[in-house]
Amino acid sequence: MIAELGLVALWLSAALAVLxxxxxxxxxxxxxxxxxxxxxxxxxxxxFLAAFAFVMLLWLFAITDLSVKLVATxxxxxxxxxxxxxxxxxxxxxxxxxxxxxxxxxxxxxxxLEKRLPEKTMQATLxxxxxxxxxxxxxxxxxxxxxxxxxxxxxxxxxxxPLLQDIGLAFHPPTLYMGYVGLSVAFSxxxxxxxxxxxxxxxxxxxxxxVLGAWVFLTxxxxxxxxxxxYELGWGGWWFWDPVENASLMPWLAATALLxxxxxxxARDALRAWTIMLGVVAFSMSMVGTFLVRSGILTxxxxxxxxxxxxxxxxxxxxxxxxxxxxxxxxxxGSVTEGKRFSALSREGALVFNNVMLTxxxxxxxxxxxxxxxxxxFDVRVSVGPPYFNPVSAVFAIPMMLVMMVGPLLRWRGxxxxxxxxxxxxxxxxxxxxxxxxxxxxxxxxxxLLGLAVAAGLAVASVLPLFGRNLLRVPVATWGMxxxxxxxxVALFGMASESAFTKERLVAVTPGEVTQVGDWNVTLETVDxxxxxxxxxxxxxxxxxxxxxxVDIMNPQERHFWAPAQETTESALLTRWDGQFYAVLGHxxxxxxxxxxxxxxxFVTFIWYGGLLIALGGVLSIIGRLTSDLRRxxxxxxxxxxxxxxxxxxxxxxxx
Length: 656
Prior knowledge:
The protein has helices spanning 2-28, 39-62, 69-74, 81-86, 92-113, 119-143, 168-196, 201-232, 243-268, 272-294, 308-332, 347-376, 386-406, 417-441, 446-463, 476-501, 606-655, and strands at 503-509, 514-517, 520-531, 535-546, 551-554, 557-562, 565-570, 572-576, 579-588, 594-602. By secondary structure, the chain is an alpha+beta fold.
C-alpha cells in the first residue's frame, strides 16, 4: 500500500507539472483563461506531492519492504538504520526521485514566496520549471519506477554497495542535488526572462539568491565528496580528476561565473546577455553531469547506472532542454540590450576577466572529461588525468586569482591606476617573497610553489576591503565576499602544501617492526580479526609517534562485507593542526609480513576548511542580499505611501 501511495503521488505530481506548463504557456500568449491562474497553486501542490512520494520511499527502505524491487536490490534487513535511509538515494531510481523532489520543492518555494517579478515573467519561469520537471517525471514513471513491485517478496535484500555504506552518503548526494536543482531554477528564471524580455536588474536580484544557494550546496557537496573519497577509497588523494568528480566541478565553475555576472547585472545593469547565457550553461553542466553518472558510459565508483537505454533517455532530455534554451536565446538575444558600459579598469572589468577565466577552466575540464569517451568510440583508449588537468587549468586559474586580489578594491564603472599602485605593489611583493622563500627552503615544483605564493597574496588581499572601515558597520554581504575569498586562499594553501610536502612510504613489516615516514615512527603492534554490524575485518594496531611526542594508536582495516560480498579498505587518519597522518592496511605477503601504505600530508585539512569557509561566505552573502533587498522594497513602499499622502493632500491644499 505504501508503494502504491508513492506511485500515485508521483503520477499526480507529473499531472500538475503539465498543468503548470500549460498555464504558463497560455499566459504568455495572452489567452484569458482560468488555467493561467492555477500556475502558482499547481507548483505548490506539486512540491507537496513529490515530497510525499519521496517520504513513502524512505518509509519502504526504513521497514525493508522486500516486495519492492528497489529495496530488495539496494538494502538488507541487517543494515544500520542510517544506511537503510541513505540507501533510498544510493541507487539510480531513488536518486532521480530525490532530484525531482528537490526540483518540485524549489518550484513550490518560488511560487509561494517570490513576488518581485512581473506576474507574466513569473508564470513563464514556473512554466519552464514545469517543463524541466516533466521530463524527469516521464523518466521515472516510464523508465525508472522506484516503486516497482516484485512478483513475490524475496527472503533477503542484496544490500548496498559497501563503498556507499558510509555516513558521507547521507550528506554528499543530497547537497549536490540541491545545487544541481538550484541551477535548474536559475535556468528557468533565465528562460522566463528571455520569453518576456525582462532581463533587468530586478530579475538579477531575484535570481541571485537562488544561484547563491545552489552554489553553496554545490560547494558543500564537492567538499564533502572530496573528503569522503579521500578517506573511503584508501588511495591517499583528495581529488583524482575522476569523470564523475568533474561532473560536479563543472556546474560549480559555471555557477561561480553566473553568480558574479548576476551581481554585475543587479548592481550596474550590465552583462545582460552574458548572464542569461551563463544561466543556460550552468544548468547544461548539471545535465551533462547527470548524463555521465547515469548513462553507463563511465566506469567509476561514483556512477549509478549501467543501462544504455536509460542513458539515451537522459541524453534526449539534455538535448531537448539545452537545445530548446539555446534556440530561445538565439531567437530572443537580439531583444536583450547590451546594458550600461564600463571601463576595463573597474570592478565590472575584473569580474568579466575572471568569468572568462572560469569559462576557460570549465572548457578544459569538459574537454578532458569527454575526450576519452570520444576516442573510445573509435576503439582508442586514452587516459586523461592530473598531467593534463593540473597545468592546463593553472594557466587560467593563476591569472584569475591574481586579478581576484585586486578586483574587490576596484570601483564600479571605472578607476585610476594611481589609486591602485600601492596595494598592487604590496600584494606583488608578498607573492614574490613567498615564492622566493619556498624555493629557497627545498625542491618544490613550479605549480605548488605558485600555489603557495598566490595563496598568501590572496589571503592578504581578501581582508583589504575591510581596511579602514568600522567592522561593525560592514555589510553582511561584504563579509561574505571576504570570507569566501579567504576560504579560497586557505583551500589553495592546503592543495599546494599537500602536493609539495607529502611524504609517502609503502612497506611490508612484521608485528613489532618499526618504520619511518618523515619524522613519524610507526610500529605495527598486532593484526587481529574484528566484526561489525554487517561485516568482518582484519584490523591492524599501529603505534604512531612524532619525534619524542605522545604515542597515538591507529586502526586501519581491510573489511569483508557479506551483503553484497565485497572487500573494501578502511583507512585510518590521525589529524594534527599541521596535517594528517594517513595509514592503509594492505594484504599479507607469503613470508608473513603485512603491507602498509603510509602518508604524512602537511596541511591537507586546510583544503576542506577552505571549502567550508567558501560555503560560509556564500551563506552570509545570501543573508546580506536578502536583507538588502528587503530594505530596498520597504523603502520603495514607504516612498509610494508618502507620495500617495502628498497626492491626497494636494486637492485639499488647492481648495484652501
